[in-house]
Amino acid sequence: MTSTKPEKEFKAGAVRATIWRNDHLSSDGKVFNSRKVVIERIYRDANQNFKTTGSLAVNDIPKAIVVLEKAYEFLICSDGKRNATGFHDADENERDA
């Protein structure tokens, strides 16, 4: 059930935030998912091969903030029942009560 491709990716320069979705089966047979965000910096090694690291330079921090904010926005807005704060809105019936 786990995907080998990321659900979403955000990049700013060499900094990337990748969202991974993992589907799980609960003991009562229901499928639920969890999402994780991986942040990394892409660079080239001495042989010009692309590598990644979780270590950030000072100039990478603003880029990391941008991609993490985008990832957070995607996560809280991807479920239609969540509002901008990440909390569930009341159902129509609850608002009228």
Question: What's the quick description here?
Answer:
The chain has 97 residues and is α+β, with helices and mostly antiparallel strands. Helices cover 23% and strands 35% of the residues.
What would your notes on this structure say?
This protein has two helices and four strands. With 97 residues, the chain is of the alpha+beta class. It has one domain. A hairpin with a 5-residue loop joins strand 2 (15-25) and strand 3 (31-44). Residues 80-97 have low confidence and may be disordered.
Overview features:
single chain; 97 residues; alpha+beta; 2 helices; 4 strands
Walk me through the topology.
Blueprint lengths: L7 E5 L2 E11 L5 E14 L5 E4 L7 H17 L14 H5 L1
Antiparallel strand pairs: 1-2, 2-3, 3-4
Amino- and carboxy-terminal Cα gap:
40 Å
Biggest sheet character:
4 strands, antiparallel
Q: How many separate domains?
A: 1
Strand fraction equals: 35-45%
Structural class: alpha+beta
Question: SSE string, helix = H, strand = E?
Answer: EEEEHH
Nearest-integer average pLDDT: 84
Instruction: Please give the count of helices.
Output: 2
| Sheet with the most strands: spatial strand order | 1-2-3-4
Overall geometry:
elongated
Low-confidence residue ranges = 80-97
Helix content: 10-25%
Overall number of strands: 4
Oligomer: single chain
User: What Rg do the Cα atoms give?
Assistant: 18 Å
